[in-house]
User: Which sequence fits this backbone?
């Protein structure tokens, strides 16, 4: 629990944001001659063998072709709103109360503290069980998913060139 308005996620001496933002930084990385990006295509594990490294950002059980069954996931819905002035005084605040329907509010102007904005754009994040067609953001932690995780770690050890990103990128608000 934190009792401070310090926006930093870590208490490291040196930290910061890319000067021109994360979009430009990632675009610069992806333009490298040794990086190939494939979009809008289905991932097949067999194709990964042709590469030294693979960065996979899909559903964890999907990487293994659901060989060990399907995991339960949570998904997110987002609600954006604007306010005059300041809303919460920091970039991200989590809400853990059972009677609050959202889990987090992001006040975007605090990600760029060197800028000054009179008004504020905020986003509420609502978590729910994922259904077919939803973006699977988080694995639901259950006894079954824990056993599954042990088994998939064994499978991962046989394909160590693969980096599995457990945080998926948002592809828009799907309800």
Assistant:
């Amino acid at each position: 629990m934190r009792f401070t308005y310090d926006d930093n996620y870590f208490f490291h001496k040196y930290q910061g944001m890319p000067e021109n933002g994360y979009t430009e930084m990632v675009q610069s990385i992806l333009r490298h001659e040794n990086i190939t990006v494939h979009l809008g295509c289905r991932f097949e594990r067999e194709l990964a063998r042709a590469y030294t490294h693979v960065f996979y950002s899909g559903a964890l059980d999907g990487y293994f072709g659901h060989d060990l069954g399907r995991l339960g996931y949570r998904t997110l819905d987002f609600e954006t709103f604007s306010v005059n002035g300041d809303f919460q005084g920091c970039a991200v605040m989590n809400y853990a109360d059972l009677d609050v329907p959202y889990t987090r509010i992001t006040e975007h102007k605090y990600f760029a503290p060197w800028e000054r904005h009179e008004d504020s754009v905020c986003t509420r994040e609502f978590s729910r069980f994922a259904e077919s067609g939803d973006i699977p953001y988080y694995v639901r932690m259950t006894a079954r998913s824990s056993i599954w995780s042990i088994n998939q770690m064994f499978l991962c050890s046989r394909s160590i060139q693969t980096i599995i990103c457990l945080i998926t990128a948002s592809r828009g608000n799907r309800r």
User: Anything to note?
Assistant: The chain has four helices and seven strands. The longest helix spans residues 143-157. The helical segments are 21-30, 45-48, 60-63, 143-157. The radius of gyration is 19 Å.
